[in-house]
Amino acid sequence: MTPVLVINSGSSSFKYQLIDMDTESTLASGLVERIGGGFGEGVARHTVHAAALAAPDGPAPTVVDATTTRELPIPDHTAGFRVMLDAFSSDGPSLDEHPPIAVGHRVVHGGARFFEPTVITPLVEAAIDDLGVLAPLHNPANLEGIRAAERAFPDAPHVAVFDTAFHQTLAPEAYTYAIDAEVAAAHRIRRYGFHGTSHKFVSEEAAAFLGRPLESLKQIVFHLGNGASVTAIDGGRSVETSMGFTPLEGLMMGTRSGDIDPAVLIHLARRAGMTIDDLDDLLNKRSGFLGMAGSNDLRDVRAAIAQGDERAILAFEVYVHRLRAYAGAYLAQLGGVDVISFTAGIGENAPLVRSHALQTLGFAGIEIDPERNLAAARGIRVISTDASAVTVLVVPTDEELEIARQTLSVARGTVE
Ligand code: ADP
């Protein structure tokens, strides 16, 4: 067994997964939330997965995914990790018998500095802290999780896996904004791109599924969850991506506007008296599906469309209009495409979004098979017709597994 622990830490919560890398199956997962003084009781949920209960080569286990919940005060992340360790001790699997050989941490912003998974040292922590200027909601919270995890697992190597790292292959013409160069340099203003762990994972899974070398493929990956981004990938390298300096740019999302003329902000500040915080709130939290149709969840929007709700219909039309615009743009940037993949909550579960996104691209040899698209299947699958020149796939993403893979490769000193 080769267990790797993956940590995704937020400011008042963290998620974890213990994955056996021999089989790439999850042994245990959990969520510790409501961390901090202001919440009263904290909550810790710990799930032992079937894979942890199955004896090697033995019969399939009868207990599947048993979850226990604990409620107790959790004043800080260090206390949260103690609660997690207690849950492992009492519910299993035993970390004494199978200690994690490495701990992988999701870190949102690696700036222009981190282009691959990196063993965490005091210098790396200082750099993550410094990059908090660019990701004030995320990097400090990621760092808190790292420090608490280091106390809980002092003997294991800790590895940072950055959401931005995969996009460090963007060429200057793709990442540079056309603004005053000195202002841009002084404030590190450029496109960084996000969701990199997912885009990397999906593009590699797609190549493996098709049995074709990653290096030979031009790919477009649509990651459509609550946050949404699309990436053009040439030979395994990200060459264009829709999120920019922050995750606000690009596609319309659950609560974010995506692309907007920046002069709208200037106008609203001057004419509507909106402050910087008002504008931040408007574009990041009150726009997208939520702002246009009243819910950030596509399932609600779909139900409203079925009732003939015109706001919901318009929100959907705007959403797919933009997907098409990006598909076309990335087709042009790549000079053609071999594979288009859809992933994340919407990409994996909304056939109507997939078909509308590619509807007008028949001229480019892109043809979705309506039956394959609608089939209620799970797992990686083809949804294009056999005659389609471009293969269209649905690829379930698994960011934790990708973090574990990258963590293991660094821990073994074999990072490519
Ligand atoms: P996050 O970005 O928060 O990780 P997810 O990838 O889990 O988000 O995607 C969440 C979104 O996926 C939901 O807000 C919802 O709009 C959409 N979604 C999830 N399941 C379905 C479904 N069965 N049908 C349509 N949309 C779905």
How does this structure look, described?
The protein has 416 residues and is an alpha/beta fold. The chain folds into two domains: 3-162, Nucleotidyltransferase, domain 5 (2-Layer Sandwich); 212-399, ATPase, nucleotide binding domain (Nucleotidyltransferase, domain 5). It has 16 helices and 14 strands. The protein has helices at residues 50-53, 77-91, 122-130, 139-152, 172-175, 181-186, 196-210, 263-271, 276-285, 288-293, 298-306, 310-334, 344-349, 351-358, 370-374, 399-411, and strands at 3-9, 13-20, 25-33, 41-48, 66-73, 102-107, 118-119, 158-162, 218-224, 228-234, 237-241, 339-343, 381-382, 391-394. The strands form two sheets. The protein has an eight-stranded mixed beta sheet with strand order 5-4-3-2-1-6-8-7, with helices on both faces. Strands 11-10-9-12-14-13 form a six-stranded mixed beta sheet, sandwiched between helices. Strand 1 (3-9) and strand 2 form a beta hairpin. The longest helix has 25 residues, at 310-334. The radius of gyration is 22 Å and the shape is globular. Bound molecules: adenosine-5'-diphosphate. Residues 225-227, 254, 296-299, 344-346, 349-350 line the site of adenosine-5'-diphosphate. Adenosine-5'-diphosphate is lined by residues 225-227, 254, 296-299, 344-346, 349-350.
**Spatial arrangement of strands, main beta sheet:** 5-4-3-2-1-6-8-7
User: Given this structure, which CATH class of the largest domain is correct?
Assistant: Alpha Beta
Please, what is the CATH homologous superfamily of the largest domain?
ATPase, nucleotide binding domain
Hetero groups: adenosine-5'-diphosphate
Q: Indicate the low-confidence ranges by residue numbers.
A: none
Distance between the termini: 23 Å
Nearest-angstrom radius of gyration? 22 Å
The CATH topology of the largest domain corresponds to: Nucleotidyltransferase, domain 5
Q: Mean pLDDT across all residues, rounded?
A: 95
Helix content: 25-40%
Order of helices and strands: EEEEHEHEEHHEHHHEEEHHHHHEHHHEEH
Structural class: alpha/beta
Domain module tally: 2
Largest sheet, described in full? 8 strands, mixed
Number of strands: 14
- Strand portion: 15-25%
CATH architecture of the largest domain: 2-Layer Sandwich
